[in-house]
Hints:
Elements: E1 8-15, H1 18-28, E2 32-39, E3 42-51, E4 60-65, E5 78-86, H2 91-100, E6 106-110, E7 113-119, E8 125-130, E9 152-159, H3 163-173, E10 177-182, E11 185-189, E12 197-201, E13 215-222, H4 225-237, E14 246-247, E15 252-257, E16 263-268, H5 296-301
Parallel strand pairs: 1-4, 5-8, 9-12, 13-16
Antiparallel strand pairs: 1-13, 2-3, 3-4, 5-9, 6-7, 7-8, 10-11, 11-12, 14-15, 15-16
Amino acid sequence: MKQQTTGIHHITAFSRNAQENVDFYAGLLGLRLVKKTINFDAPEVYHLYFGNEVGSPGTAMTFFPWSTSRKGRVGGGQVGYTTFLIPVGTLDFWADRLAKFNVPYTRVERFGETYLQFADQDGLQLELVEREGGQPSKWSFGGIPAENAIKGFGGAILYSVHPAKTMEVLQTVMGLEKIGEEGGLVRFRATGDLGNIIDVNAEPMPRGAGGAGTVHHIAWRAKDDQDHRKWREHVQANGLQPTDIVDRQYFNAVYFREYGEILFEIATDPPGFEKDEPFETLGEKLMLPEWYEPYRQQIEQGLMPIEVRVLKGDE
């Protein structure tokens, strides 16, 4: 049976200042900080998860804020733009909001849609697009009512050093469908209604360099653990080199680098972020996996205190 992902599970990027990161994604963009934990591979660094009211698969933008991180360079082997999905009729609201907080933006047309393109405080390239698909967010914060809130991911633009090979992986391995070409981009669609539209730059891109303002990896959705095991076998059968299955507490993960050098992950939809915190207090406490609990005091002392706060101008 053909394996087909429904779309993006999450996207993970690098940033520098943890509080500035929270101010931008929770304060300005109005996403909910649903989980405050650490990079399990580098416990001196936060891992922050932002999304809809529960950080549902297809909504979670995550960050490793590292104060000493070098400035990255966006390029081949990376996600070039992360696309957020907003409700139809709210583009002008968002244009006004970006202007209000002095975030420069550009309106661009692509495949019959209008996008607002801008960057975060570290230079990470983002865009907003209106579409009907995807469940509305129930989260309201600061100056953003729930009816205008970001629903989750619209998709992404991928920058590849071997775009033909990346596009082949999207079709033959991930199960996306090619649906169009325009302006040097090739468009693919997954089966879901969130995080399902992927554009690939058709020309090879010079290699990027990881660091603040760049994406570390893009993760695709698997239904459950059984489906996840099938995905690992499927990736391996197609000549790629998946890692073993890794427990990330809120999902299980498998990683592999596709032939265009972009790091892909396949992540399970369950168990989700309410596994260890109730809905009402998601993201408020530093959550640690059990193997790090004995070192909580030491870990907390090494992390910058952060808070979700309403920005000046929204007060």
